[in-house]
Amino acid sequence: MLSAFYAARLCTPLEVIEDACLLVRDGTIEAVGTRAAVAAPSGAKAVELGDAWIAPGLLDIHVHGGAGHDVMRDDPAGRQAMERQMARTGVTAYLATTVTAPWDATLAALEHLGGAVAGGAAASSGDSGRARRLGIHLEGPFLSHARRGVHPPEHLVAPTPEKLDQMWQAAQGAIRLLTIAPEVPGAIETIHHARRLGIRVSLGHSDADAATAQAGIAAGGTQTTHTFNAMPALDHRVPNLLAVALSDRRLRSELICDGIHVAPEVAAFFLRAKGPEGAILVTDGISATGMPPGRYRLGGLEVEVQDGRCTFEGKLAGSVLTLDRAVRNAAKFAAWPLPTALRLATRNPAEAMGWQTRGELAVGATGDFIVLDGGGVVRRTYIGGLEG
User: Fold this and answer.
1) Which residues make beta-bridge pairs with 302?
2) DSSP readout, 167-225?
3) Do 187 and 216 form a contact (C-beta atoms < 8 A)?
4) Strand 16-25 and strand 28-34: pairing?
5) Which is nearest to 369 in space by CA: 382, 350, 387?
6) Which of 69, 116, 125, 272 has the fewest CB atoms within 10 Å of its CB?
7) pLDDT digit string (tens) for the chain, length 388 residues
């Protein structure tokens, strides 16, 4: 199937093309440029999008659930509802993110999560309206007791390559990202082993000082998990993981940009410190995303959701943020144009995860894209060139 999409503007996101045309054949981008420069072959289906923007599909590498579904539960219908909801808010691919649980429950969750990974195949008419699961983000159990947040302390596990191997095998090799506290005994060896397996490593839920954070980077850490949250506050005389996250250009750093986890003024400081290349927007969304206030699951926890805040025993426990809202918030907080903010939810996570055919509208890339109004509100989502 060959389709030509025409819009007032297209954000790649590295450049903005006016009076744009995007040509998609069988789920893959064949051409991108101005309407005048791209000659659509005869027989191509023309889709006129008027004054809208075309942008890459959003990528969420840290999400626990949505639409009432928690990813730790083996519930295919719930997963599909969550993925449809994510697509409606512009997310075209994601990493299902675990939470610390009893060891047997973690392995069971990894088994069903690994079996549901979509891989890189083009969307079919049956799944075009759903965000695609590209793997697993393992958040826990290799975390610091001091900075565990709401992760149950009794289920935290000392990291070892052998433990990681057990989880890798249960997940059928689908673990793509590991959050780990580098100061925990066994962490450095486990980071080395994760990299050998091809797993990206994010430093988080950590009480590490700067030297230990640097050791984690030297071992293979390339990111930080929900920066500011579950790590010590910035101290101008005693540098720590947060200081390294803000200053080390080798690290990309996640931000939950809802104005709750990090105040807007501090989010603006972070975004300017990391710049358009160094920040990654995530939701840390839980099953309550898109649902009314009430009580919802986060793994084995029952979380109270009121006024946009998710709490367990008074502590923040994930969010109900959507990634399109995070993009708009980032643009507002940092006073950035929309294309700059879009990079933080498209190209940056794709580069961080090594997804070479995602996160950018370019020849040969997967035909996942969104249609936005001038304010960044999602009008349509296309996955593999098909509208949901």
Assistant:
1) 297
2) HHHHTTT-EEEEEE-TTSTTHHHHHHHHHHHT-EEEE-S---BHHHHHHHHHHTEEEES
3) yes
4) antiparallel
5) 382
6) 125
7) 999 999 999 999 999 999 999 999 999 999 999 999 998 888 899 999 999 999 999 999 999 999 999 999 999 999 999 999 999 999 999 999 999 999 999 999 999 999 988 544 444 445 669 999 999 999 999 999 999 999 999 999 999 999 999 999 999 999 999 999 999 999 999 999 999 999 999 999 999 999 999 999 999 999 999 999 999 999 999 999 999 999 999 999 999 999 999 999 999 999 999 999 999 999 999 999 999 999 999 999 999 999 999 999 999 999 999 999 999 999 999 999 999 999 999 999 999 999 999 999 999 999 999 999 999 999 999 999 999 7
From the number of C-beta atoms within 10 Å of its C-beta (0-12, 13-18, 19+), residue 363 rates as exposed
Q: Contact, 270 vs 227, CB < 8 A?
A: yes
Nearest to 78 by CA among 243, 289, 267: 289
Three-class DSSP category at 158 = coil
Which domains, from first to last, does the chain contain?
A: 2-53+378-387 (2.30.40.10), 58-358 (3.20.20.140)
Nearest CA to 87 among 119, 115, 111, 63? 63
Query: Omega of the bond prior to 13 within 30 degrees of 0, cis?
Result: yes
